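Our preliminary data section would be incomplete without showing what the modeling component actually yields. Below, a chain of 197 amino acids is followed by its predicted structure, encoded as tokens that our downstream tools consume directly.
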Amino acid sequence: MSTSSDKLHRLIYKTRFGNGMLVWRGKMLLAHSLPGQQGRPGAARQTMKNSSQANGPVSWSRIQRVEPATSDEKKLVHLLESYFSGKRVDFSPHILPLERAGSTPFQAGVLTALAAVPHGETITYAGLAAAAGYPRAYRAVGNLMAANPYPVIISCHRVVRGDGSLGNYSAGDGWKHRLLELEGCPFPAQANPIESR
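Predicted structure:
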């Protein structure tokens, strides 16, 4: 039997790139959809599917939309709106109530190493694996980044290929390029950036 603390709700935040969405289960953040990606949340959709298997599939449109109420919700909405306006913000996963972040020692190690990559800088998949203490696990690092349900909040966009190319991104290569550009990270213009609306 589900309780009110188990219920899902969604919050919308506004940016110059469109609206983004946060999905919460009670007081825990379940998933994040980048601006303009509502209904196409990439890894977040899979996370919601996995987390709701016992209760059946979850439709994003059926999740009740509410206004930010708790201090964590208000703080995260403010941080995201600030980030997308070009400000430098700290999305430390240690101070945000993320569901399933770092559930294994490997995942926790990789996310801790990723959190040390500064705003506006990048690291390679192999470099991140080594920094986390798993130097041969660069493919597993890539899989973990691809399944990240918290884009931007967990900064998987800062992880690039060893040859200097962007690598894949669940929200699309254009978004990865845009996020690095927002952070002032010099990068070859090989992907089409997402235009402001």
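The mean pLDDT is 79. The longest strand covers residues 8-15. Preliminary results of this kind motivate Aim 1 of the renewal.
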